[in-house]
């Protein structure tokens, strides 16, 4: 199946307050964000035309900018309105929404304090990646060589473009070996997350997940934890070592793209997607449904 390159699509992208024809939404090759990684972004989903937890994403977007030492020139409310406008103008129902902000091209050096901050929002059709039964077979994960960095060495709590370099490399290596993704350890060798999703394990009816201190405490992660606790499941956030993996029964990952997706394998370790994973998948689907909110 041929895929239309993202710079060749039709439609509109919101750029610095204006709706710009998709193919004209460009930045200069000497933009600071391209050369020095001074860029942030969000990954969001719209269901039936409504963006799930849009405000939480906008708050995190502005917080990421603050951590990266720049300020988004739009308020949370303005960002929410702009995202809704993009989805509506595009005529999308189930869509992926991508806000991004970066330092411009006024100065090309490590210091970019006086560079203009550009903000853009795009959206494109992207329904759920798998149906329930396909998800219940579980995806296969490799174990990445790169590790999530020490919080003293990188702005780990920003959704910053530069932090995804090792994610792209790790995912490429995993895909070449036939895996869907890779699980990453942290700088001390403890289980951290996948290249673009948080990870959970189950044992004796309880859910275990790594403490999000060197990677993003994902919005889908927090939603899933809330859904699990509503069901009465015990959720334990703690340090998890790789040698514990054989002791877990189920494993699943969470993220705006992945939603809630069971895992059947992590390198040499196997898991059996079961009722707990299915329950949280179904609860998440109900949670993101606008019909559910209107009831």
- What integer value in Å does the Rg equal? 19 Å
Order of helices and strands: EEHEEEHHEEHEHEEEEHEEEEHH
Based on the coordinates given, report the CATH architecture of the largest domain.
Answer: Alpha-Beta Barrel
Helix fraction? 25-40%
Number of strands: 16
> How many domains?
2
The top-level CATH class of the largest domain is: Alpha Beta
Mean pLDDT: 95
Q: Assign the structural class, choosing from mainly alpha, mainly beta, alpha/beta, alpha+beta, or little secondary structure.
A: alpha+beta
The parts where pLDDT drops under 50 for at least 5 residues are none
Termini Cα gap:
39 Å
What is the name of the CATH superfamily of the largest domain?
Answer: D-amino Acid Aminotransferase, subunit A, domain 2
Q: Count the helices. How many?
A: 8
The main β sheet shows up as: 9 strands, mixed
User: What does the overall shape look like?
Assistant: globular
Strand content: 25-35%
CATH topology of the largest domain: D-amino Acid Aminotransferase, Chain A, domain 2
Structure description:
The protein has 295 residues and is α+β, with helices and mostly antiparallel strands. The protein has 2 domains: 12-125, Aminotransferase class 4, branched-chain amino acid transferase, N-terminal domain (D-amino Acid Aminotransferase, Chain A, domain 1); 132-291, D-amino Acid Aminotransferase, Chain A, domain 2, CATH 3.20.10. Helix content is 27%, strand content 29%. It contains 8 helices and 16 strands. The chain has helices at residues 32-36, 54-67, 76-90, 132-135, 165-176, 219-230, 275-288, 290-294, and strands at residues 12-15, 18-21, 39-41, 44-47, 50-51, 95-103, 117-125, 139-148, 181-186, 191-194, 198-203, 206-210, 235-238, 250-255, 259-266, 269-270. Strands 8, 9, 10, 11, 12, 13, 14, 15 and 16 form a 9-stranded mixed beta sheet that branches. Strands 1, 2, 3, 4, 5, 6 and 7 form a 7-stranded antiparallel beta sheet that branches. Helix 2 (54-67) crosses helix 3. The chain is globular, with a radius of gyration of 19 Å. The mean pLDDT is 95.
């Amino acid at each position: 199946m041929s895929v239309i390159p993202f710079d060749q699509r039709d439609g509109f992208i919101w750029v610095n307050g204006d709706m710009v024809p998709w193919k004209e939404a460009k930045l200069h090759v000497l933009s600071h964000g391209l050369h020095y990684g001074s860029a942030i972004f969000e990954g969001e989903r719209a269901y039936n035309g409504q963006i799930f937890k849009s405000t939480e994403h906008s708050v995190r977007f502005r917080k990421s900018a603050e951590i990266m030492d720049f300020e988004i020139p739009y308020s949370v409310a303005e960002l929410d309105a702009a995202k809704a406008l993009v989805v509506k103008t595009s005529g999308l129902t189930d869509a992926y929404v991508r806000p991004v902000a970066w330092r411009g091209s006024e100065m090309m050096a490590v210091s970019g304090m006086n560079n203009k901050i550009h903000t853009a929002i795009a959206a494109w059709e992207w329904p759920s990646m798998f149906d329930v039964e396909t998800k219940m077979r579980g995806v296969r994960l490799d174990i990445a060589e790169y590790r999530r960095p020490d919080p003293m060495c990188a702005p780990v709590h920003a959704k910053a473009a530069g932090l995804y370099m090792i994610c792209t490399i790790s995912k490429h290596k995993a895909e070449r070996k036939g895996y869907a993704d890779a699980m990453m350890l942290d700088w001390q060798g403890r289980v951290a997350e996948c290249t673009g999703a948080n990870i959970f394990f189950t044992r004796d009816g309880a859910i275990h997940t790594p403490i999000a201190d060197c990677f993003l405490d994902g919005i889908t992660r927090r939603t899933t934890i809330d859904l699990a606790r509503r069901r009465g499941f015990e959720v334990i956030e703690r340090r998890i070592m790789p040698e514990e993996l054989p002791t877990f029964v189920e494993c699943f990952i969470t993220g705006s793209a992945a939603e809630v997706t069971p895992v059947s394998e992590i390198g040499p370790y196997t898991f059996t997607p079961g009722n707990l994973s299915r329950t949280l998948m179904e609860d998440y689907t109900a949670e993101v449904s606008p019909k559910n909110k209107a009831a």
